Amino acid sequence: MMEWEAEIEGLQNSVCQDLVFQLTIHFTSEYNYIPPVVKFLTIPFHPNVDPHSGQPCITFLDDLTKWNTNYTLSSILLALQVILSNPVPENPVNLEAARILIESEYLYRAILKLFSRPLQSKKYLLFVTWQLAIIY
Predict the structure, then answer these.
(1) Is the dihedral of CA 34, 50, 5, 9 positive or negative?
(2) Residue-wise pLDDT tens for the chain (136 aa)?
């Protein structure tokens, strides 16, 4: 068993541009015959990421029949980067994130940035919360 930590950045010109997400990748002794377990440590406010477990909804990670032993760590990280940067609100695991994205991409981006950056202080958190309350 092996567990790696990684960071991925959002793609340019996407809702995740300039954001960095930390994640763990847990490889069992059966890897590469079964996919690794991927979980975000920085759980993004995202329609396709479970808000409780931090697990992304990517078919080839969730469904053993879709896993291919040719997938590499690079292909997994790229798939994560693509799904973060291109949310699919039509098939969400985080219903609230999907609803807000559909209703207001501007508000969604603001919330995503709030959940994605390390909070500097309570004063900063109060400012951002107050700012979001005015927007919403």
Answers:
(1) positive
(2) 899 999 888 888 988 888 888 999 999 999 999 999 999 998 899 999 999 999 999 999 999 999 999 999 999 999 999 999 999 999 899 999 999 999 999 999 889 888 775 433 344 444 444 444 444 4
Alpha-carbon dihedral 43, 21, 62, 94, rounded to 10 degrees? 40
Check: CB of residue 27 under 8 Å from CB of residue 1: yes
Name the pTM for this structure.
Answer: 0.81
Q: How many CB atoms lie within 10 A of CB 63?
A: 10
Dihedrals phi, psi of 19, to nearest 5 degrees: -105, 145
**Known catalytic residues?**
57
Tokens of 9: 């950045």
Rounded Cα gap, residues 31 and 28, in angstroms: 6
